[in-house]
Please model this.
Amino acid sequence: KQWYQRRVAITAGGDHHQLPPVIKNMAFQKYSNMEQSLFTRFIRLGVTAVELDRQGRSRESLANLYNWRYKKLGNLPHVLKRPEYLTANTGFSFDYQLVNVEDFNGVGESEPNPYFYQNLAEAEYVVAVFMYMRLLGYKSEEITILTTYNGQKHLIRDVVKQRCGDNPVFGFPKTITTVDRYQGSQNNYVLLSLVRTRTVGHLRDVRRLIVAMSRARLGLYVFARVGIFANCYELTPAFKQLLKHPTDMHICPDESYPTNRATGVLPTAAKIIKDMPEMSKFVYDFYYQVIERLMKSRQEEERVVLAAETAAHRFKTPTEAKTIDTPIEEDPEKKKKNLEETLSQPFLAIDDAGTGDDREAGNSSDEEDVVHPIRIIPSQNLDVREEFQPFPHVKYETQEESGEEFVGPTMNLAQESVDADMSGETEEVNPPQDSN
Model:
């Protein structure tokens, strides 16, 4: 009966330092100020607010890229104690890095349709780094590729599909989307493409920058035209921190995943990548090195298994035989059965043209097929380079064909057009709540 005397307490949670709602109607957006969220209105009106002062997502070095925006933002204890936060990123010299990407063939950003921005050099660079991480052993679900424009998102998806779609060695990253769409989500490693090479664009909104810098837990690698963004006053605090590291990609391909190197400790030997064509060529060569190493390892395992099974067919158990080197006479029927089982193994090779040396000399035998139970005869004409080309648009010539060293790849990748959208994703979706 006295409901009017009761007090009702409402608790609202949010972050007014991140992106506001997306308003499609320009009249509502500009003249009604509906782009301002309810949470921001409460803060501006002076409603009592408690601001969190600890974060538990990013390692300490990555948190420095965005904690300047908050009054006092420290780190939860687990960020300073858990092994994943104390271990360096395998194959990289730094936990985060701003990589400068110059024009490729005289082209930086492009605009096939109004406000539909693309940058082929950054797209290729980002995908090459993703392939490099997969070759080292990173899981694809731990990697996210972000960009600030829809056009670049579609271009990166096309490049990934063409380079990695049919190859199980690479696969697809967990997510390829825009910064606006990814608000509220996180992943261990984020590759970020900023696209623009003439002007800063809508990244000048500091709230969008904070979202972009705070999505990664363990590693953040930003690909951009450094001269454009570093001179933007609104972005100075974040890019001042990013520029503490070199703007050329520093990688360590000799490290195995996961590494034992502690975070903050530089590797003894690092390879410096100057530009996107060099990274593309390196990944191309590194891919075949990894495949050849895996093939040799697999052949060695098959030899060991075949030798063990052959020994099991020829000898009885050690308790029944005096020594393993003493063959025991087997029943003819049992011997025939063992031979049939051996022949059924997928790794058994039948040399029907004499020995390998005879085949190379062109001397084939007219005798019946000779079974070599222990010997594996690999294909003499095996060339893994013919099976898969990770960079179809890159034309490579061997030194025997060209007579000179590699001078760089050439590209010709069609850029597909999709409906333009200046502000990133504008689909009306409810983004997942930030775990923080």
About this structure: Residues 320-326, 346-388, 394-432 have pLDDT under 50 and may be disordered. The first strand starts at residue 54 and ends at 55.
